[in-house]
């Protein structure tokens, strides 16, 4: 019985070792042996200072952000309470007073 992990991209059981890498012959995905993550790992989202963000945190905007499709601007120092973390490029879902529902990138905020 093989002790090799399943492919992290397609979950195929037919993986093999190539030096210090694992390779999946079905989808062609390659990953380092130290990159194998357990199924319960969730992505860690960090703010601009490297602090880990969690659901319900309060954050502050560190850069003027133009709101796409309108003339509104979210100003530096705007506090946002009770954030939700989501998957994707814009990984923070929140409501900003005076603007409404927004998605923000974690690189433009800091934890309070």
Automatic annotation (TrEMBL):
SUPFAM superfamilies: Prokaryotic SH3-related domain, Zinc beta-ribbon. It is an enzyme of class 3 (hydrolase). Gene3D superfamilies: 2.20.25.10, SH3 Domains. Residues 3-32 form the Protein YjdM N-terminal domain. Keywords: Hydrolase. Residues 45-112 form the Protein YjdM C-terminal domain. It comes from the Bacteria. One of its GO terms (molecular function) is phosphonoacetate hydrolase activity. Its EC number is 3.11.1.2. Pfam families: YjdM, Zn_Ribbon_YjdM. The keyword Hydrolase applies. Signal peptide: none annotated. Belongs to the YjdM family. PANTHER family: PROTEIN YJDM, PROTEIN YJDM-RELATED. This is Phosphonoacetate hydrolase. It comes from Paraglaciecola agarilytica NO2. The gene is phnA.
